Fold this sequence. Notes:
Strand content: 5-15%
CATH architecture: Orthogonal Bundle
Shape: elongated
Amino acid sequence: xxxxxDISTVLRTLADPTRRAVFERVVGAAEITVAELTSxxxxxxxxxxxxxxxxxxxxxxxxxxxxxKVYYRARPDGxxxxxxxxxxxxxxxxxRFADLRSLLKDIDP
Length: 109
């Protein structure tokens, strides 16, 4: 994958709860097939495949074909746009927590 994925693509992809659940199962496994993801999920195999396609296009998973099976695994670099976006706001939260700490000390010395 050579083109950069933007934060909007990652957020849009992970906004769907079923897709997010599929991604979490992929993250929790070293590698996993569509059949394994479908088993016990209550979601059809074609729906799982569509969710995996979206996750792949967003750069969140990669696939490895082997014979008739395709194995999926998480691509940690795919979350970089999200992590970068969140880190931009870390100073905001750090300042807010510092203000809260000061307020709590004033209320209950």
